[in-house]
Every structure is written in structure tokens, then in C-alpha cells.
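User: Batch of two.

Assistant: Item 1 of 2:
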Amino acid sequence: MYQLLNGIRILDLTRLLPGGYASQLLADLGAEVLKVEDPWQGDYLRWMKPYLPGTKESALYWALNRNKKSLTLNLKSSDGRKTFLRLVTKYDVVLEGFRPGVMDSLGLSYKELQKVNPSVILCSISGYGQSGPYNRRSGHDINYLALSGALNLTGQAAGAPVPPAVQVADIGGGALMAVTGILSAYIARLQTGRGQYIDVSMLDGVISWMAMLYAQQAVEDSPVKRGEGILNGGEVCYGIYETRDARFMSLGALEPKFWQAFCQAIDRNDLADKQFTHDPSVLSEVQTIFKTRTQEEWTAFFNDKDVCCEPVLELSEVRNHPQIQARNLFDLLRHPNGMLVEVLSNPLKFAEKVELPNQIPPRLGEHTREILQDLRFTPEEIKMYERAEIE
């Protein structure tokens, strides 16, 4: 048994979602992740509702911070910056999510980090990237989706754009791109000994997810529109249909064989050649058919048929689905008070036996003394440090 990323040490300066998700993925795989948090509040996510039952601890924080350590450090003080630079000599990666310019203003630019550790990897996650007229502009997931064009393509043709429930730009455009960049830079460093600076823009990342849409836009005369494309509600064979009990089924019969299997299953072979028709009467006919059964009945009906038709589940139903249970996508962490806290597990599955750590999220500053001792602070220096942090 071994940990895949054993030996990689990461200083995590990020807060909230993108950085927290990225560093948790790396921590789950065995990287040593140290959250460096300010002493007065730490990661904002710690204090956000909803709380775990009977506590003032955020369930959201528990979802994104397992397998990490926490050190409190005031980067705005000269002593804090000196301590951070001592840490950089012992770590491989620095991950930060400040607005562009903040690391420079703290005296912790990539150039300054290189002075103490020439092989250090610095990864910056920001909304719009380190360059361009928007580089210091504030934003959130919905803004990046809006500028990418993705938001305008989400929703019904006759309605307004609909924000997705999942933070696509934060996770897909930010966190996953950061993990890819960090691992790529680390592999390159093993070969060259050189560090790297990685500039991750959540807007850039989400635009890259839209490669097929932009390719389609470039060659077709009519623009790609909300609710009218092949994969966003414009085809009868690929869409969402309401059932008799006012729930929904997802039909993904995109390939001809799946559409034909669907038509055969519902005993409507007369629709087999109408897969990509834009005749409103065909859509209406399929809508009427789905309303003849409840969601549960349709789920049972299609269970043994190769049709690509699945129920649209409520969030509370997902953990009980047999496929989800078989893949062990939920895990339990034991809170110090004995309570079991349910969290999502790491989604990666490996054929060879690897050790995946499963430690609870750290309390604010929980590992400060341990880290300072590792930096060879004397007992007197540690006492002075702790007094300064309180003040």
C-alpha cells in the first residue's frame, strides 16, 4: 500500500471553493497540504451555514478540507512573511487564490519565492487571470459563465438563462485546471529541477470546456442558441420530459441505435425516422407519451432496455441509488464529539492498491505548533509567535 502523491508538500493560501476543492483532491491522493490561514478568521468557509448539528462548524468546510493541516499566520506582518518564506524552503507548491497583485503587495511574488526556493511551483487561481483589462476585477462563477457564453445557452429557448446548480467555472475552470497544472509542473520539475508559475483563469478554463460549441459556431450559418442546440434542448431525442407524477426523465437517445431502441420500446416505430425533426407535433407526441407513466414506472420500464433514459433525481435520492452505492461515492468522517459526518469521497478509482487518507478537516491553527517545531523554532520563539498571533 502506498500514497500516490506521497512526498509532495503544498502550501494552500486559498479560501472557499476552487482552491479548497483542488487541494483536497491532491490531499486525498497523499500530498501533504498545509492550509495557511490568517489568525482572526481563517478560511471564510469555516463559518458559513449550514452548521453541523449541535456545532458552529460549517458543513461546507467539512466537505472541502479533509486530509489537510492548518497553520495560522499573519502575512501582513514582517514576521509572518519571514515565517512563510521559511516554509517555502521546505515545500514544493504554493497555491493561492487572491486577486492579482495581492501576492506582490505582500512581498510574496513568484520572484521572491524563487529567491528562497528556486524550484518552487506557484499556482494562482483567479477569475480572469493575471493579465488583461479584467485581471483585478471581482467576480463569481455566474459572471465567468456569463462572459464565456455558457450561461446564455443554458435554459429553455423561450425563457431566460438559468444558472446551473454546480459551480462549473469554479470547479471545472479553476480547481481542475489548477490540479492539472500543478501535477504537470511537478512532473516537469522532476526532469529539469526547475520551478514554474501557473496562471489559472476560471474564465479561460470554462471557455476551454466549450470547445465543441465554439467549433459548431464557427462552421454553421445560424448561431448556437439557448434551448435549440443538439445538446441543450433543441432535439426531441435529447432532452428532459415530465412524467405523470410531475417528475422528470432524461432522454439521451442521441445515436440512431438508441433512438430506434426507444421508439421500439414504446411501440412507436412510426417515430423512428423523426429523431432530428423540428416538427413541434413530434415533440408534443413524445411529451404526451412520457406523461402516461410516473417516474418510478418509467425507470422500471427502461431498466433492461439500452435506451439512455434515466430519472432526474432529487439530491436526497442520489446516495441511495444502487450505482452510486456500488461506487462508494459517499464516506463518513467521525467528528471529535463522536458524530458521523457524511461527505463525498474521492471519485478516482485505482486498480492497484493505494492508501487514500481519510482525516477530518483541521481546526483553525490546529497544527501551528507542530509546523513551527518542524521549522526549528525554539520554544521561546514559539511562545512569542503565539502571543503575536493573539494580539
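Item 2 of 2:
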Amino acid sequence: MSADAQSRPQDQVAGRPGRIDAVPVRHPGRWVAIAVIAVLVAMLVHLLVTNKAFDWSFVFQAMNQQPVIAGFLKGTLLVTALSMVVGVGGGVLLAVMRLSDNPILSGVSWVFTWFFRSIPRYILLFSMGTLGILFPQGLSFGVPFDWKLMEWFGLSGDLRFLNLDANQVFTGLVAGVIGLGLSEAAYMAEIARAGMLSVDKGQAEAAQALGMSSGKVMRRVVLPQAMRVIVPPTGNETIAMLKDTSLLVAVPVIGELFYQLQSIGTTYYKTFPIAVAATLYYLAATSVLMIGQYFLERHFGRGFGTKAPRGPRAARPAGAGGA
């Protein structure tokens, strides 16, 4: 028994393959790509430093002007935030209407989405700025019918409980927020609808079986799980909305960033440096939004994905129990 036990390890060691001398695979294409990219980067840096058309001193002077900074804070960031609030709130409402069993609500949601997705935002903002011509007597809320109808019912007085100046409503930041918000609501409706449809119907049925109302099921069960699908495209839409605030020149919004930069460029006949200044502003703002989007996606994406859990518990084999 001892002879057999001593011979087995020797046989196994003798039967093992010898040392493998692995030769690393060469990738000449990588070095070629690195060389090409390095040359292109060097050319770009040389262009940025030596070309006098950039006029960096004027670019930074224009960026530091008080009207430009105020336009960036109020006309760009504020309009972006307010438009996204209108767009996200309206989009979720439209998505719920679209998924409703009521054909009227579903049809209204579809028509709204079809209409505002079909119109370019520049044309929508331009049209929004001219809507005051439709209401020369003011924008009234109440009974806007012929006063003969009131005489038939023996009524007297003014049944309009609110009357607004249309030229004040459909101009400036208000018109920009309304136009961009309604356009964004049409896109957010499809994003929210896709997120709601991604949640298994059994989740809602189980919640309803526990006695939860439809509204509570939507708030407590469906929407929290749908956020994993809704957040990434919503972040992209927010970044796109930030850039689309430059279209507010169609209203026009005097306090907007690009409007202020254009005014400076027209005054000093500096067109290209103004475009560079606007580019730097939008690059900085979108970079911050991308970082926020990353953390939001990581927060709502917890528990999903293909990454293995970390720690000693991840290495424990199945069925090992407490061993």
C-alpha cells in the first residue's frame, strides 16, 4: 500500500505537461492608431495656440461680462430647470393617460405627443412668440361666448374670472419655458411610457391584490422600478434642453446667454471668438450634468446588471452553507 501511495504522485508529476512559453500577440494596429491620434492632437493644440483667429483674450473678456454671466444663470440654467420640470411632469401625466383604458385620455395623449414631436423647437418658439396676435383683447379664462347666450339665461356681468395680457405671457422667459416645456413633455411621455411598460405587470397586480389603489400602485410600485429605465434618457434630454436654450433667440429672450454673446460679437465685430466663448460655457455646463447623470444612474440601477457582488460572500460556492 505504501509503494502504491508513493508512486502515484510521481506518476502524476511525470505526466504533467512542461512549461509553456507563451508569446504575446503583437498589435501593430494599436501603435499606428496611437501615432495618428497623437499627430492629430498635436495639430489641434498647435492650431489653438498659434491661430490668432481664436483671440483668447477677447474670449475670456466676453465670458466674464456681467450680462453674459447673468444670461447663463437666468436665461440658460433657469430656463433649463423650469422647462424640464414642465416636461417631466407633463410627460409622466401623458404617459399615464396613454396607458389608460379610457380611449379619450389615450387619444388626447397621442395627439399631443404627435403634434409637439412634429414641430421643430425653433419654429415652435418662434410661433409661441407671435401667439399674442390671437388674443388682442387679452387671454381670458371663463365663458368666452357671445353675450347673447348670457341674455338667454338671464345672466349679467362678466363670467371671465381671469384676464391676462397675451403679449406679456407669450414673450420672454415665460414663452421660452412654455414652448420648450411642452415640446419636452411630448418626448418625456414616450420615455416614461417605455419605463412603465418595462415593469412586469405582475408587480401592479400583486399590489392591487393587497388593496392598493391605482394611484398608489403607480407611485409606490411602478414608477420607482421604472426609474431605472427613465433616468438615462431623461439625463440626455436635460443635456439637450440645456443646449436648446440657445434657440430662445427666436422669442427673443434678452437675458439668454447666446443672445448676450451675440450682442457683444456684433458690437466688436468678433464673430468666431463669441462662438468659442459660447462653446466653452456649454461644455462646462454639460460636463457637470453628465456627472450628475452618472450618479443618478448608479443610484437607481442598484440591484441590476451583470457585475458580481464583492466581498467574501461572493466567492462562497453554491450549497456550501456555513462551511
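The radius of gyration is 31 Å.
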